[in-house]
Task: inverse folding
């Protein structure tokens, strides 16, 4: 898996919110109320914005192993890893391909018990009308086990 990113660095003098994550986690401790209760994290994003600015399997696996019983997660599109070429309406399928690879890697158990991106919500432009079906079909073909739906924002 290779990652490309066009995510801008913060303006000069501004804090980098992504790199502040570890400090915030160190200050925030949640009481584990029902550790036996199975939980699906129903909305998260994964990305690689470059060195020190990533949130992929290693990072989310650490977070979901916090004491709660997170058994699965649902990835929601965040406009990352789009295809660089091809028809514009099919570029978002690149994100589904990338997330499917991460979901399969997670399903191996190598990153813990939780099944990260067990469900994948992709993007399609509903303004395409009936032509949006081609995009949805491409998402389904890219991830037949994990693709679950579309978020249009």
Result:
């Amino acid at each position: 898996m290779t990652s490309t990113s066009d995510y801008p660095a913060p303006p000069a003098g501004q804090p980098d919110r992504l790199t502040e994550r570890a400090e915030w986690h160190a200050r925030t401790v949640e009481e584990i109320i029902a550790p036996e209760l199975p939980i699906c994290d129903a909305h998260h994003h994964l990305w690689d914005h470059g060195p020190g600015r990533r949130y992929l399997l290693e990072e989310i696996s650490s977070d979901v192993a916090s004491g709660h019983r997170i058994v699965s997660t649902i990835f929601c599109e965040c406009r990352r890893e789009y295809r660089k070429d091809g028809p514009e309406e099919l570029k978002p399928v690149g994100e589904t391909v990338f997330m499917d690879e991460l979901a399969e890697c997670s399903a191996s158990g190598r990153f813990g018990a939780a099944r990260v991106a067990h469900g994948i919500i992709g993007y399609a432009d509903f303004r395409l009308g009936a032509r949006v079906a081609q995009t949805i079909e491409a998402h389904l073909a890219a991830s037949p086990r994990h693709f679950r739906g579309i978020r249009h924002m």
